[in-house]
Amino acid sequence: MQTLLCKSLIVAGLALGAALIGGNASADPGDNLRWQSAIGIAQAGNVVGTGTGAVTGAGVWSAQGGQVEVDLDKGKIDFDVHGLVLAGGIAIGTPGSVVQVKGTLVCDTDGSASGLNSILVDTPLVDLSDEGDAQFHGSVCALPAVCASEPDIAFLIRAGTKWIANGTVLR
After folding, report:
1. DSSP letter at 47?
2. 34: helix, strand or coil
3. First CA to last CA across the chain, in angstroms?
4. C-alpha dist (Å) from residue 101 to 32, 43, 52
5. Strand 3-4 and strand 119-122: pairing?
6. How far apart are CA 118 and CA 125, in angstroms?
7. Are the C-beta atoms of 11 and 138 separated by less than 8 Å?
8. pLDDT for 65-97, tens place per residue?
9. Rounded to whole angstroms, how far apart are CA atoms 104 and 161?
10. Phi and psi for 168 in degrees, rounded to 5?
11. Beta bridge partners of 104
């Protein structure tokens, strides 16, 4: 799996919670991408991305809301999510055994510019509270050029290797 993470992360704040996942966007250098909401995964096993950059969804999750903002020039990612909890099973309405999440920018979701492989850019792990809240404010260094050159980009919140939420309502 192609995942990029800068070792010199600038973390302005960590809080309890889980993260957001995103829809497709048209990205140009200088763009700031903003997903106005965050939702849990509605269909277990849903796949975002392709090739070595494909990310499979976990079970069904729900979220009360959140938002994501990405500064493509500066590699800055800000996300917060509220009420990210399981939407089924014994632990329904809680984060279950998930105590940390990370944000993942999925660049070139169709792999057309990256040898049929999406490129993943992860934030560091952040705590997910018992109420399903999490946030990250920091940098992941310079983003790969494909994040700004390709029109297909998404933002996911992951627990381990599986995604559990995404950013929605991109503007």
Report:
1. E
2. strand
3. 29
4. 23, 19, 21
5. parallel
6. 21
7. yes
8. 999 999 999 999 999 999 999 999 999 999 999
9. 10
10. -135, 170
11. 122, 156
Six-digit token string for 133: 């809240």
Looking at the DSSP assignment, which residues form a beta bridge with residue 166? 39, 156
Tokens found for residue 137:
């404010």
Q: Scan for tokens 């991408």, then name that residue.
A: 33
Q: Are 157 and 81 in contact (CB under 8 A)?
A: yes
Q: Show the tokens assigned to 43.
A: 């269909």
- Helix, strand, or coil (residue 157): strand
CB-based contact 128:38 (threshold 8 Å): no
pTM: 0.83
SS (H, E, C) 62-122: ECCEEEEEEECCCCEEEEEEECCEECCCCCCCCCCCCCEEEEEEEECCCCCCCCCCCEEEE
Residue 51: phi, psi to the nearest 5?
A: 60, -140
In one letter, which amino acid is 142?
Answer: A
Residues 131-150 pLDDT 10s: 999 999 999 977 999 999 99
CB atoms within 10 A of CB 148: 17
Burial (CB count <10 Å: 0-12, 13-18, 19+), residue 30: exposed
Classified as helix, coil or strand, 130 is coil
